[in-house]
């Protein structure tokens, strides 16, 4: 049981390049999240998907797009990377219910130069 | 809107001493609160949660948290700290507002705990 799997683990991009961060969970969870973690800022929600077929913007969605491909997969795309998007990105998921805890992937460390 | 605050960026304690990592919350309605731990270069791991019931919640690795409704706090505690407890700790709250934000999980800025030998 792998839990939440993110790929890649590390990536270096040049300004203006595009890339997609992949996330998959094998726990049959309905809800999935993308967060970014920056020093002193904690985790900030980029996008949220309450269920397959739905996505909503979080606190910091500018410069990102998402796709909830199916129940398992939730990808995050940077169309034109900027140095301000240098961060560690985490995907998470939880089953339905307000009292359920979220499970996190190992993170993707992205550097934009 | 729901939010949590962690007033301390860093907490330093000696091994064997009790530790407390503070969290205060702001919610409309009953709070659903969580604590997570992050070790270097790892994802977040769930420690414990408060949904309802007893104000003292027990979790993983000997941690517990005390829910205090009057002080709107949910402090993480451990009676005897270990060097291996050194990590980044996050408090989180579930959004229960009816609307597009329902179900989201919001995190505090994190508190770096250092336990020295």
How would you characterize this protein structure?
The complex is a heterodimer of chains A (113) and B (117). With 113 residues, chain A is mainly β. Helix content of chain A is 0%, strand content 51%. Chain A has strands at 4-7, 10-13, 19-25, 31-38, 42-49, 56-57, 64-68, 74-78, 87-94, 103-104, 108-112. Chain A is globular and about 40 Å long. Chain B has 117 residues and is mainly beta. Chain B is globular, with a radius of gyration of 14 Å. The relative contact order of chain B is 0.34. In chain B, a hairpin with a 5-residue loop joins β5 (33-38) and β6 (44-50). In chain B, the strands form three sheets. In chain B, strands 2, 5, 6, 10, 11 and 12 form a six-stranded mixed beta sheet that branches. Chain B has a four-stranded antiparallel beta sheet with strand order 3-9-8-7, with no helix packed on it.
Q: How can the largest sheet of chain A be summarized?
A: 7 strands, mixed
Secondary structure class of chain A reads mainly beta
Give the distance, in angstroms, between the N- and C-terminal Cα atoms of chain A: 36 Å
Summarize model confidence as the mean pLDDT of chain A: 94
Low-confidence stretches of chain A: none
Name the helicity range of chain A: under 10%
Overall outline of chain A: globular
Number of helices of chain B: 0
Based on DSSP secondary structure assignment, what is the total number of beta strands of chain B? 12
- What's the mean pLDDT score of chain B? 92
Strand element count of chain A: 11
H/E element order of chain B: EEEEEEEEEEEE
Classify the beta-strand content of chain A into a percent band.
over 45%
Taken from the alpha-carbon principal axes, the silhouette of chain B is: globular
What about the largest sheet of chain B? 6 strands, mixed
Of all chain pairs, the largest interface belongs to: A-B, 26 and 27 residues
User: Approximately how much beta-strand content do the residues of chain B carry?
Assistant: over 45%
């Amino acid at each position: 049981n792998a839990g939440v799997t993110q790929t890649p683990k590390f990536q270096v991009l040049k300004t203006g390049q595009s890339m997609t961060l992949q996330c998959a969970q094998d726990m049959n969870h309905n809800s999935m999240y993308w967060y970014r973690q920056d020093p002193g800022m904690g985790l900030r929600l980029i996008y949220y998907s309450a269920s397959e077929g739905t996505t909503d913007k979080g606190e910091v969605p500018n410069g990102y797009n998402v796709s909830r491909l199916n129940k398992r997969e939730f990808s995050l795309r940077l169309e034109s990377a900027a140095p301000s998007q240098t961060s560690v990105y985490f995907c998470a998921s939880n089953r339905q219910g307000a009292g359920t805890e979220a499970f996190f992937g190992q993170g993707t460390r992205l550097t934009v130069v | 809107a729901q939010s949590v605050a962690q007033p301390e960026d860093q907490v330093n304690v000696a091994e064997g001493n009790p530790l407390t990592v503070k969290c205060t919350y702001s919610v409309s309605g009953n709070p659903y609160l969580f604590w997570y731990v992050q070790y270097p270069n790892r994802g977040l791991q769930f420690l414990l949660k408060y949904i309802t019931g007893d104000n003292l919640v027990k979790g993983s690795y000997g941690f517990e948290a005390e829910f205090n409704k009057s002080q709107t706090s949910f402090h993480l505690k451990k009676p005897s700290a270990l060097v291996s407890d050194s990590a980044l700790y996050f408090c989180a709250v579930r959004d229960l507002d009816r609307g597009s934000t329902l179900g989201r999980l919001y995190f505090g800025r994190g508190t770096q705990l250092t336990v020295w030998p």
